[in-house]
Write a structure and sequence with these properties.
Blueprint: H1 2-24, E1 39-41, E2 47-50, E3 53-56, H2 59-68, E4 72-73, H3 79-91, E5 104-105, E6 108-109, E7 112-117, E8 125-134, E9 143-156, E10 163-167, H4 171-184, E11 188-195, E12 200-204, E13 210-213, E14 216-222, E15 234-235, H5 240-255
Parallel strand pairs: 3-14, 11-15
Antiparallel strand pairs: 1-2, 3-9, 4-7, 5-6, 7-8, 8-9, 9-10, 11-14, 12-13
């Protein structure tokens, strides 16, 4: 009896302190990101959108790649750009460079923001905010982390009462959409995963929007100098345990209608 109890305790310790933590933290491709915050914050300090994408390349590489993939740089947030986005929503007028609200990572507002318009106005759009987090990563190139989300409607923030966009909850789909556009444009050299915020079923961003995610960040190493890649990008698979976790997560998410 005592031997069986000891076995149960040993199994618990193995799972709780070694196996499960390993599912939350793997940075074998970018060890310099271990311990980095993986959730943005609003100006009020409220946890915002989680990070779910990464880009490797300098600022010019990003500009070329995003342009080739059909993304537009977002305008700075000003009274004029605010008025333009309101006009776009109310009058069904296109605004492919509409501003995005400011989020902070490590106390810094986003360095870059891009959007991919959908429909005839700024009510619906794909968008991504990017922060330069390392000047030189594993590839000896700058590393950027970002939050890619889809604005599905205009609403009122649950936390501040301000008019804002409500994001679609499946932020993994937005992460994948960004990667797909870059791959299709021939701008992706290599794809791999690192740990982000961790598996989350009922997350809430800084405006109160619900989201779910497997918690992984998909990193895209961009081609240099905008030279289009004819072959598909190299894909580095995650560790087997992470791949299993992702598959289990997707099954659970599908079972709950996510």
């Amino acid at each position: 009896m005592a031997l069986a109890a000891a076995g149960v305790v040993a199994a618990y310790l193995l799972v709780a302190y070694l196996v499960l933590p390993a599912a939350w933290t793997h940075y074998e491709r970018q060890p310099g990101l271990a311990g980095h915050p993986m959730v943005t914050r609003t100006a009020q300090g409220i946890p915002g959108d989680p990070l779910n994408v990464g880009l490797v390349g300098d600022r010019d590489d990003i500009a070329r790649a995003m342009r080739a993939a059909g993304w537009y740089p977002a305008d700075p947030l000003t009274l004029r750009s605010d008025a333009e986005i309101v006009g776009s929503v109310l009058l069904d007028r296109p605004d492919p460079t509409a501003p995005v609200s400011t989020l902070f990572l490590d106390g810094r507002r986003e360095d870059l923001a891009y959007e991919f318009p959908v429909g005839d106005n700024a009510r619906h759009r794909h968008h991504v905010r990017l922060w330069r987090v390392m000047d030189k990563g594993a590839e000896d190139r700058p590393v950027w982390l970002g939050s890619a989300t889809f604005d599905r409607r205009v609403g009122v923030s649950d936390y501040t009462g301000q008019v804002t966009h409500d994001i679609a909850p499946d932020i993994d789909a937005e992460r994948d959409f960004l990667a797909e556009t870059l791959v299709k444009a021939g701008m992706a050299e290599t794809l791999y995963q690192i740990s982000g915020v961790g598996p989350t079923v009922d997350g809430r961003n800084g405006e109160g929007s619900h989201y779910w995610t497997d918690g992984e960040i998909h990193v895209i190493v961009l081609v240099a100098d905008g030279v289009r890649r004819a072959a598909p990008p190299a894909v580095v698979p995650p560790p087997a345990f992470i791949a299993t976790k992702d598959a289990v997560w997707r099954s659970v998410a599908d079972a709950f209608g996510n």
